[in-house]
Amino acid sequence: PPQSKGKEQVFPPQSKGKEQVFPPQSKGKEQVFPPLTKGGLGGVKTTLNARLKWVQELQSIPLFSAFKPNNEIEEKVLSLSLLIRELQAKFPSNTILCVDAGFCRRFAAVAWLVTEIDNFFSAANIAPMGWGINAGIGIKLAKPEHPVIVLTGDGSMAMHGMDLITAVRYQLPIFYVVSNNQGYGTVYQRFQNNLQAAQQTLLPPLNWVSFAQSLGVHATKLQSLSELNTIVEQFFQLNATFLLEVHTQLIY
Q1: 65 falls within a domain
Q2: pTM for the whole thing?
Q3: Pairing between strand 3-5 and 8-10?
Q4: What is the CATH number of the domain that holds 213?
Q5: C-beta pairs of 81-86 under 8 Å, 24+ apart in sequence
Q6: What is the per-residue pLDDT for 10?
Q7: Residue 157 is part of which domain span?
Q8: Which of 140, 156, 197, 235 lies 20 to 30 angstroms, CA to CA, from 146?
Q9: Confidence at residue 124, expressed as pLDDT on a 0 to 100 scale
Q10: Is residue 56 part of a domain?
């Protein structure tokens, strides 16, 4: 450590001993590595076998979870994970999914299959609400040849929903899906056993279809997954900014 000398710090002089040589040892311009031992090769084989066993265990796990949501009004809402899978099945294989914070990201990370490089976008480090609404605009401008789906929630729409007008202004055919569970889902789950705190995480039943239409966005509400194919066809025929509102679960 430096020695204190008034306000200045004085560092001790470095020793002028011999330099330390670490393997590989230097021999002119060539590098000489120590020979591998049988034990070293055996260790590699053991590691590879262990890794192969781990991969086989992963492959034996079902791709999609078969859990059943715990919700009293389950029959009145749609499964978010099933909706994501249906969307991917009905959109071209080069479609990009941009997901917002909360339940959207949690379910999309499991339900959406990444088939190409850069076809899944999420702000995983800081989870900003409403980020996906704007990021989808930037992604569509950067990759106009790719269809873009933005999966967002009603909480995120309350933060940055007005930015839909930017997509309309630049005539960007982005397919916005609003998962409306009338609450901040992940926060509600944390406080659901505390009635007073949980009530503060609920949101009013806003009509996001009417909101989007007021900004010039084509919008509709999904009542059943059987309607999805017609809605997707309508989106591609319009070739314009589109919003689909879907009522989903608040409790999982």
Answers
A1: no
A2: 0.69
A3: antiparallel
A4: 3.40.50.970
A5: 81/107, 81/110, 81/111, 82/111, 82/225, 83/177, 83/222, 83/225, 83/228, 83/246, 83/248, 84/108, 84/111, 84/112, 84/151, 85/111, 85/112, 86/225, 86/228
A6: 58
A7: 74-247
A8: 156
A9: 78
A10: no
